[in-house]
Amino acid sequence: MKLIMLGPPGAGKGTLAAKSVNILNVPHISTGTIFRTAMSSNSPLGLKVKAIVESGRLVDDQTTIELVRERLAQEDAQKGYILDGFPRTIPQAEALAGFSAVGKVVNISISDSDILERLGGRRVCRKCGHNFHVVYDKPAREGICDHCDGEVYTRDDDKDEAIQKRLEVYRAQTAPLIQFYREKGILVDMNAMIKFEDTMENFKNALAPRRV
Ligand code: AMP
User: Fold this and answer.
1) 12 lines ligand 1 (CB under 6 A)
2) Is the CB of 178 under 6 A from ligand 1?
3) By CB distance 3.0 to 4.6 Å, which of 17, 94, 129, 148 could disulfide with 33?
4) 79 Cβ contact partners less than 8 Å away, ≥ 6 residues apart
């Protein structure tokens, strides 16, 4: 399955994608995680995008498209993928259509108050990218990832000012993708709930073949 997870920051795209990898048996490709990993290792890409990512703005289309084109050309993505955080602009979606045939787009809706609660409490593993939450999904040992012992931290772009910027950017640049994919007949809507089990159920329903 070639699947795109669409939705505002904090909708739970990454968490749903990570939980679905074993069900769908395709890789979870998160552009945000790729950028954060590059930033942690101070690679040329990381240094180039650091200030942009930390402020909540978008990395330029050309850099992002090239990164995804190369990632999708790898062996493990030939049978499918779950794209999380890409595309985020119409030019990215148009470029993607030129090198891969997307099968389904799941559009996740969530209220603004739930977004703020999710992002304000989110913590992330610096090493493997796993998401935690200070109330709903705490790591067993404070500040240490349950999966890889990496450091669990607060993303710079999960701080108040950057959250507002990311919501603005989402509304202006990413939300138009809902119509773009609806017109192509491959978009499925689902609601995200603050209780993760309910969201997972909605997600499984959205993936059911009869919905498209
Ligand atoms: P995410 O983890 O998906 O919330 O992404 C974190 C940050 O990485 C975003 O706020 C952007 O700065 C950058 N980013 C991730 N994906 C993209 C993309 N498709 N286009 C441009 N910037 C992106």
Assistant:
1) no
2) no
3) 129
4) 25, 26
